[in-house]
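Quick start: what a row looks like.
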Amino acid sequence: MEIKNKELLDLCEKFEEEGRVFYEELANHVSEPVIKDFLLIISKEEAKHKEHFKKILEEKGNQKYGWEDEPDLHKLVDKKFKQDLFPELNWDLEKFK
């Protein structure tokens, strides 16, 4: 089974967006300025990564990258990465203070 460039890069974009949202929301729950700033920096980095993957996809389109014919890649993506990587922030953050 072949994994398409768009499929893999879309998945990478999704991971980066989830990371950006996670770190940004976590920063909203932190009162320590240094930690808050650090989390916001990480959030911005995740946004940059997302844009990088988007740019790769726009520039390369359907060109081959070398991973398309890798037999275990599709299984790995389906098994490990078609889920949320970052936890929801609906758990009690007070216990971490």
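That is the whole record. The helical segments are 5-28, 33-60, 73-81. Residues 33-60 form the longest helix (28 residues).
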